[in-house]
Amino acid sequence: MSRKRNHIVVVLLIVALMFTLIACAKPTAAPTPAPAPAPAESNYPEKPITNLMGFSPGGGSDQLAQLTVPFLSKNLNTTFTNVYKPGATGAIAWTELAKQTKNDGYTISVTPTPMLMTNYIMNPDITYTIEELEPLANVVTDPAVIAVGVDSPFKTYEDFVNAVKAEPGKVTVGNSGTGGDDFFTVLMWEQQTNLKVQMVPFQGDGPSWQAAQGGKIDASFTNLGITYPQVKAGNLRILAIFSAERSKLLPDVSTAKELGANVVTGASRGYSAPKGIPADAKAKLLDAFDEMFKDPEFVAACEKQGLEIDAMIGDEYGKFLKDNEAAYKDIWNAVKDQYKS
Amino acid sequence: MENVLLGLTNVLNLINIVAIFAGTAIGLFVGAMPGLSATMAIALLLPLTFGLPPATGISMLASLYLAAMYGGSIAAILIRTPGTPAAAATVLDGYPMAQKGQAGKALGVSLVASLVGGIISSIALLTVAPILGKIALQFGPIELFAVAVLGMTIIGSLSQGSTTKGLLAGAIGVMIAMVGMDPISGAPRFTFGYLQLFSGISFVVALIGLFSIPQAIRLIEKDIKLQKANKITDKMLPTLKELKTMWVTMIRSSFIGIFTGLIPGTGGDTACWFGYNEAKRFSKHKEKFGTGYPEGVAASEAANNAVVGGALIPTLALGIPGSSGTAVLMGGLMVHGIMPGPTLMTEYADVTYTLIWAVMLANFAMFGVGLLFTRVSVSVTKVPNKVLAPIIVILSVIGSFSINNSVFDVGLMFGFGLLGYFMDKIKMPTAPMIVGLILGMMLDNSFNQSMMMSQDDYLVFFKNPIAATLLAIAGLSILQSTPLFGFLRSKLIRGKNP
C-alpha cells in the first residue's frame, strides 16, 4: 500500500513540476532593470505590462517582441509578460484586445500590417476594427520584393513584365497566403500595371520563395528581410523592391516606382493598445518607443537581425493604419467576387 | 573537414555537454507530457538561451528536440496517449505490449530504435547534408500532393478488421482537416462563425482527445474488476537476438525518417506512419502488427527520431526548415544574430558543425538519460486505474489548453474524446482518422496549388517524374490490398509451376 502511495506521490510531483514548468516558461519576462529616478507626473506603470500576441512563439510577432521588450521595459521601468493567443491570423487576440481588454494601458499587442486590417476587411465574422484600437507605434517594415530563382529566365524586371504581357494570366506568381501582405502586393501591382498573373497562395513566405528557387513557380512576391540570406548566397534574384527608396542591403535593385509601377508596400509590425487608454499612460508608452528608436543599441540589434526600422509613433502610425485600411478595402472590393466560394 | 573537426572539439566542452544533457532531460519530459510539444518547448526556452554562446544555446534546443521524439513514446506505451504527435503510431503496438506486461521491453525497444534512427540521421547530416539538402527544393506543390496521396494509402493498411470502418474513419479525418480558412480563397469553412475555428482544428488537440479520454474512461470501466498490477520485471533492453530480427526495420525506418524530414511540410507526425506502414508491408508477420509486436514500436520510433537529422539537413544546408521544430530553431539562430541561410555551412561553420556534433552526442545522452527516466516512468503501470484515469484527464486538459492558451480547445478536446470513445465502442479504428487529419490539409492545399500552377491540367501529376513515381507506388499499394492482386499473383505462380 505504501508503495502504491509512493507512486501516487511521484505522479503528483510530476504534475506539480509541469505546472511550475509552464508557469516559469510562459512569461518571457525581461530582467527587471535597476530602479530609475522617480517618475514625474503619474506613476504609470505600477505593474507589469501584458504583451498580447496573436501568433505562436517563434513567429514574426514573437521576433519583434523579443527584440523590443528589453528596450521598452528599460525605458518604462517595468517588466513585460508575453501572452500568446494564436489563431485566425491574429484575430482572436485582437478581438480580445478591442472588445474585452481593460483600456488601462497595461495591455498592448503586436499589430502587423496589413493582417490587422485585412482580417476584418475580408471576413465579416471578424468584427473588431482599428477604430477600437489605440495605435502606439510602428517599429519595422520589411519591404515587398519580386524574387526569382537564380536559374530563372527572368534576368530583369522587364523580362518578367514582358513574359506576363505575352501570356496574360499564365505566369505563376507565389505569395505567402490569401489575405497576407504579399497577396495584396500582387493585387496592387496588377492594378497599377494593368497586367494579370496566375497567383498561387502558399502557407507562409518560406514555401513561396522556395518554390521560386526550385523553379516550381515563375516568381515569388515576398519580402526582403526574409529572402536576403538567399539573395546574398546567390540562390535568389530580386527583380524589384517595393520600397520608397532603394534598400541599403541591395543598392543595385531598382524600386518598383523607378520601374514605372507606383506601389510602395511591405509587411510592417508595430504595437497597439485598446482605445481610450489613460492619457498619461499613452504619453509614457509613446515616449518609451521614441527613446527606443534613438537608442543606438536598438538600431544595432535591428541591423544584426536584418530588420529595417520604420519608426512611426502615435498619430503618424494611426494615419498609416487608416490609409492602408482604405487602400486594402478598395483592392479587396475590386477582386472579392473572384474569391467568393 | 577542418570545420568538422573543429565542431567536434567545440562540442566536447563542459558547458556544451551540460547544455546537451539539460536539453535532453527537458526534452524527455516535454515529450512524455501529452500536449507539451518539442516545438513549443524550443520556442519557450529560446529566450533562456540568449545568455549562452550561440552554439551552446542552439545545441541545447536541438538535443531537446531529439529527446522529445523518444519521450513521446513513453506516454504512448504506458498510458496509450502519445506524448507528441510523432508517437501516434507507437501506440498501436506499444500499448498492447504494455498490457501484456512488457512495458519495459516496449520502452527499451523504443529507446534503441530512437538511438539507431538518431545516429543514422546524424551521420547523414554530418556527411551528405549539402547534397541531400537540394532534394528539399525538389518538393513543390505537385510533389507534395503525391506524397499526401501516398500517405493516404496507409489508411488502408491501418483498417484491419473492417476496411469500411477504417476508410470511413479516414474520410472523417480528412473532413475535420477541412475546418478553417480555405488556404486558397481565404473563406472560412465549417467555422460556424467561431473565430477559434478559423485556423482549423489543432491536430494536437484532436490527437489528445481521441487517444487520452477514451483511455481514461476505459480505465475506469475496467477498475470494477480488480486489475492485477502489470509485471515490470521484464528486461528493458532487447537482447541481441531480438535486435537481429528488428535491425532491417530500424534502418529502413531511419531512411524513411530522414527523407520525410527533408521534405518541407512533413515531419515526425507523418514519418512514424510511413515507417510503421513500410515495416508492415515488408514483414513476414503482417498479422502480428497491432497486437503488441516489438517491430511495430521500432518502426515508428526509428522513423521519428531520424526526422530530427533529416529536418536539420535543409535547415542548415539551405536555410529551409524541414519541420515546425526546425523552423523555431531557425528563429533561434536569428535571435543569436546568425542569419539562417545557405551561409550557415560556410560563414558560420563553427556554430553549425558544433550543432551537428551536438545532435550526434545528444543521441547518447538521450540513451543514458532515457534509460534512467524510463525505469522510473515504468512505475506508472503500477498506479491504480482509479488514480491514473483522472490524472490522464488533467494532463489532457493542461495539454490542450497550453497549445493556444484557449479554453475553447479544451472543450474541443473533450468533444474528440467522446467521439473517440464511441468509435472505440463500435470498433472503428482511430488511427486512420489521425492519418486523414494529418494529410487532409496538405492534400487539399497542394492539389489546388498544382491546379493553379498548371492551368487546371490534371495530367500535371503524371508529367512530373517525382510525383508520377510516388503516385505509382500509391497505386500499387492500393492494388496490393485488393482481391485482384491475390488473384493475379496466384495466376502468375500457377503459370510458372504448372
Question: Features of this protein?
Answer:
heterodimer; A: 341 residues; D-Maltodextrin-Binding Protein, domain 2; 2 domains; B: 498 residues; mainly alpha; two-stranded antiparallel sheet; 21 helices; 2 strands
Q: What does the model show?
A:
Chain A has 341 residues and is an alpha/beta fold. Chain A contains eleven helices and ten strands. By secondary structure, chain B is an all-alpha fold. In chain B, helix 2 (14-32) packs parallel to helix 4 and helix 3 (38-45) runs parallel beside helix 14. Chain B is globular and about 60 Å long. Chain B starts with a helix and ends with a helix. The chains are: A alpha/beta (341), B mainly alpha (498). Chains A and B meet through helix 1, helix 2, helix 3, strand 6 and helix 7 of A and helix 3, helix 6, helix 14, helix 16 and helix 18 of B.
CATH H-level superfamily title of the largest domain in chain A = Bordetella uptake gene, domain 1
Binned, the helix content of chain A reads: 40-55%
Give Rg of chain B in angstroms. 22 Å
Distance between the termini of chain A: 63 Å
Largest sheet of chain B: 2 strands, antiparallel
What number of structural domains do the residues of chain A give?
2
Task: Give the overall form of chain A.
Answer: globular
Tell me the series of helices and strands of chain B, N- to C-terminal: HHHHHHHHHEEHHHHHHHHHHHH
Segments of chain A where pLDDT lies below 50 for 5+ residues?
21-40
**Range of strand content of chain A:** 15-25%
* Total DSSP E strands of chain B: 2
What's the total number of strands of chain A?
Answer: 10
Q: Name the assembly state.
A: heterodimer
Number of helices of chain A: 11
Query: Topology as H/E string of chain A?
Result: HEHEHEHEHEHEHEHEEHHEH
What's the quick description here?
The complex is a heterodimer of chains A (341) and B (498). Chain A has 11 helices and 10 strands. Chain A is of the alpha/beta class.
Topology:
The complex is a heterodimer of chains A (341) and B (498).
Chain A: H1 2-25, E1 49-53, H2 60-76, E2 80-84, H3 91-99, E3 107-113, H4 115-122, E4 133-149, H5 157-166, E5 172-175, H6 181-193, E6 198-201, H7 205-213, E7 219-223, H8 224-232, E8 236-241, E9 266-274, H9 279-294, H10 296-304, E10 309-313, H11 315-339
Parallel strand pairs in A: 1-2, 1-3, 5-6, 5-7
Antiparallel strand pairs in A: 3-9, 4-7, 4-8, 4-9, 4-10
Helix pairs in contact in A: 2-9, 4-11, 6-11
Chain B: H1 2-11, H2 14-32, H3 38-45, H4 54-79, H5 88-99, H6 103-138, H7 141-152, H8 154-158, H9 163-177, E1 180-181, E2 188-189, H10 203-222, H11 240-262, H12 268-282, H13 294-318, H14 324-335, H15 349-377, H16 385-404, H17 407-425, H18 431-453, H19 460-463, H20 465-480, H21 483-496
Antiparallel strand pairs in B: 1-2
